[in-house]
């Protein structure tokens, strides 16, 4: 298990401009040797296929430990979040400026509730 965690040192973010910018200002931004960033800013013009591809790419990267995604965007790719069952990277849904967090929609919270029989 330690080998799985050892190289995972980055956080990826998928969200609206304000949410992603806030995380980038905190210092999580990184661009690797392939010129691939660990973030995606999504707006009304961003195709859903781009969001799906980047999420899938983030889940396959061995240097990402956590993927933060705004719940509003998570709803659009819910099928991918529900299919992701690996421990790493962990996917966490966060609120956005325009939409508060709704725990009833969070796939991780639903899994925990099923685990405890709720």
TrEMBL record:
Gene3D superfamilies, alphabetized: ATPase, V1 complex, subunit F (3.40.50.10580)
Role description: Subunit of the V1 complex of vacuolar(H+)-ATPase (V-ATPase), a multisubunit enzyme composed of a peripheral complex (V1) that hydrolyzes ATP and a membrane integral complex (V0) that translocates protons. V-ATPase is responsible for acidifying and maintaining the pH of intracellular compartments.
Organism classification: Eukaryota, Fungi, Fungi incertae sedis, Zoopagomycota, Kickxellomycotina
UniProt keyword terms in alphabetical order: Hydrogen ion transport, Ion transport, Transport
Tree of life domain: Eukaryota
Pfam families, per database record: ATP-synt_F
Protein name per the record: V-type proton ATPase subunit F
Entry's Gene Ontology molecular function annotations: proton-transporting ATPase activity, rotational mechanism
Entries under SUPFAM superfamilies matching the protein: AtpF-like
InterPro entries in the record: ATPase_V1-cplx_f_g_su, ATPase_V1-cplx_fsu_euk, ATPase_V1_fsu_sf
Subunit structure: V-ATPase is a heteromultimeric enzyme composed of a peripheral catalytic V1 complex (components A to H) attached to an integral membrane V0 proton pore complex (components: a, c, c', c'', d, e, f and VOA1). V-ATPase is a heteromultimeric enzyme made up of two complexes: the ATP-hydrolytic V1 complex and the proton translocation V0 complex.
GO cellular component, one term: fungal-type vacuole membrane
Family statement: Belongs to the V-ATPase F subunit family.
